């Protein structure tokens, strides 16, 4: 019965998305169970598509949508934007402001799992604003809905209800237009919503072209006008490593009013946890109230400064422990590079599929990052899984 609320926090991330393509490609070289490799591929979730720009009617504003089905662009009849997207406040008309604010609060209290559930009835609110269709010039109503997330793609979706099940359900509920632009080829059931490739209809100069060709040609046409670009998106996101709890390695960062964010000098590592910590249900890190831990001198200017109160996700520790084990008495460095590069990578690693999308993925990422930093001369931590 406790009310759930969400707050924006300033937190630390590892840029794992920079390694998305390599994490995918190198899977083929590993002697891992196919089930585990499929789980990682799906978790990374590569999508080849395009970003298409829409103008907001009557305002000097534009936004982009990401789509893997540019061949259905002529069938877009409305636009859906994530409730938390920054453009929402800029486009909402006075008439719909109260309804939009109430819906934003409703969406804020839901988890992402709840918002993306296929079982949940689709809900949304009209903003009062319209987007201009980039090909036809038609005005498309702009809605907000909780099934669109600001953290995936651009946070904006062109809704094509005739060719997307989710959009079809939403359009049917709110009596929005449904326009067929893809016809099935041969003896297929192409009743709506028809989500397969086919031949374009009701699509201007692209009518009669197959979907596979049209999804390229439509983007190329808009690209020449500076209103679209080909784009690869990934479902997974950068690794959030900040934790507001005691148990974990303290984040080695100092905050100085004069110098900003300053890394703890290497000679002062590792930062150790204090033992005399008071635990209280504040929602903040227990370290924040420990003055002896928090108050430090800025290593850059010598002025008063504060430690970062958060600790690292414990998956950070398990993502490189196999590099430490062979050299665990070393008190001068994490590990001896010469030794580790002779002994590793691990030939056979025994563990379950439950680690596929977290520990095993994080360990692969950290290995590649350490390779690029000059610590390792191999690409993968575990050659074979048992």
Q: What brief labels describe this structure?
A:
386 residues; Isoleucyl-tRNA Synthetase, domain 2; four-stranded antiparallel beta sheet; 22% strand; protein biosynthesis
Helix and strand arrangement:
Blueprint: E1 13-14, H1 20-25, H2 34-44, E2 46-56, E3 62-67, E4 78-81, H3 88-91, H4 97-108, H5 112-116, E5 124-132, E6 139-145, E7 156-159, H6 165-174, E8 182-183, E9 199-200, H7 211-224, E10 228-234, E11 239-240, E12 242-243, E13 253-256, E14 260-263, H8 291-294, E15 295-297, E16 304-307, E17 311-312, H9 314-318, H10 321-324, H11 337-343, E18 346-349, H12 359-372, E19 382-385
Description:
The chain has 386 residues and is an alpha+beta fold. 25% of the residues lie in helices and 22% in strands. It has helices spanning 20-25, 34-44, 88-91, 97-108, 112-116, 165-174, 211-224, 291-294, 314-318, 321-324, 337-343, 359-372, and strands spanning 13-14, 46-56, 62-67, 78-81, 124-132, 139-145, 156-159, 182-183, 199-200, 228-234, 239-240, 242-243, 253-256, 260-263, 295-297, 304-307, 311-312, 346-349, 382-385.
Q: Can you describe this structure in just a few lines?
A:
InterPro entries: aa-tRNA-synth_Ia (IPR002300), Leu-tRNA-ligase (IPR002302), Leu_tRNA-synth_edit (IPR025709), Rossmann-like_a/b/a_fold (IPR014729), Val/Leu/Ile-tRNA-synth_edit (IPR009008). The protein is about 25% helix and about 20% strand.
